[in-house]
Specification:
The chain is an alpha/beta fold and about 525 residues long. The chain has 3 domains: about 190 residues, FAD/NAD(P)-binding domain, CATH 3.50.50.60; about 130 residues, no CATH class; about 140 residues, Polyamine Oxidase, Chain A, domain 2 (Alpha-Beta Complex). The protein is about 40% helix and about 20% strand. The strands form 5 sheets. The chain has a 7-stranded mixed sheet. Strands 1-11-3-2-15-21 form a 6-stranded parallel sheet, with helices on one face. A 3-stranded antiparallel sheet has the order 6-10-7. Strand 12 and strand 13 form a beta hairpin. Helix 1 runs parallel beside helix 9 and helix 1 packs parallel to helix 19. The longest helix has 26 residues.
Length: about 525
Amino acid sequence: MALKVGESYKRYSGDENPDVIVIGSGIGGLAVAALLAKHAHKKVFVLERHYVAGGFTHVFERPDYEWDVGLHYIGEVHRPHSLLRRLFDHITDGKLQWSEMDEVYDRIHMGDKVYDFVAGRERFREKMKSYFPQEASAIDRYLELVRDCVGSARLYFLDKSIPSLPSKLFGGVLRASFLKHASKTTREVLEGITRNQELIGVLTAQYGDYGLPPALSSFAIHAMVAHHYFNGGAYPVGGSSQIAASIAPLIDRVGGKILVRAEVSKILVEKDRAVGVQMKDGRVIRAKEIVSDAGLINTFTRLLPVEVMRKHELDCKVEQVETSWSHICLYAGLAHTGKELNLRSSNLWIYPDHRHEENLSRYLKDPSSPLPITYISFPSEKDPTFQTRYPGKSTIEIIGFTPYEWFAPWKGTAWQHRDAKYDSYKQQLAERLLEQLYRYVPQVQGKVDYYELSTPLSTEHFTNHVGGAIYGLQHTPSRFSQKFLRPQTPIRHLYLTGQDITTAGVTGALFGGVLTASAILRKNVLSLALKT
């Protein structure tokens, strides 16, 4: 069974105030809370509106099964001395364990062709050259550009953690090298080194990990994600709920709390200073610092008083960014083990062909056309404890892209209380995803014991993300030039954290927590973490 983290807000007596309030319990919020507790002994209250903590690292359960909702694999953590592993060890006191995936961590299907992404940068290089022997120099140049972009990112993100005045003086220099890469689209960069469109399609086959095809995404996000997985992928032992469960003791140790079913309705601002929050039930909790892990748009447009938002022109800033795309996910349970069905931990990425933008455009115009992208994950095969916890079972997740607008007729309706047309539409989408599963994993046909589809409305309901956006803000070239995407806000003692101030996914959100803790403590928290 999944571990439940946090205590019910209803049990909170209200007779104590914390040093810091964190709104939202995603990995960014949990990380900043743990770091403030560990390095400054600050008592932090993490307030989560959902009934379970963890954000996209939590799991949900049905009889005999559990599935992760957002963490499908992470790179670097299976390497004991990598920066990311050391950081996770730091905020969990080394309690979180990782299981390495198969050496083929991603298998790419493009029409009838198959391409394997294998662990190890040099092995990846040689594998790509075996598929495209005439493109050896382009592949070498691609890997060089990825390395250069990632290498320049450290100073760019350092600028986000330093106070406003030094940033105004030196930030341009710190950001310059990274922005040379980030200001170009992924397609623009790759077409600058090769004319082979099939190679470009293969190299960008993980675009679902950051939510934009090559013609729209910044090369920076592509490079950081690709580099992140060059050494393969891993998964938390015991499932993704272990992440929040391993972080929570650091918060509890100095008197902090993780409160669930604790919905914040308003951030309280007095004399341009954040002083606390008002809860949905009207109760007020005050603190010296307020940190929002609720996302930039939610924070500025839903949680701040209108007059404060307008005074600081935060509505104008919101207009400069866009939310990421939404998705559907089919959670399937099988009454057979993965071994019996010959399932592996490798992820499958499935495309009609290498023309990503054309496939998406056709699908948007004609939803009956081939699905532009399908991702299939096997969480039960990634976790070595799954059979102990759910003997004789296995699980699969099948994910596809779906615009939020297609669900507009049901916007505002209650979860589990929508009409028959909604249920029928969900069933149609579920069947399309099952068709993909049975085509590419034919041995499971007839073996699916249970399945359930989540939609963008499900994501919006449980995460409160505007439009069901799974990756927060879109990772376009313009996104990386927005200087306001940083921990500090114009309101004193109000900070942002999570993926909106860094980059997509669990790793991006984690480093968002590091940047926010550094900004609050005015210390290089990453350096402190790596010394211990």
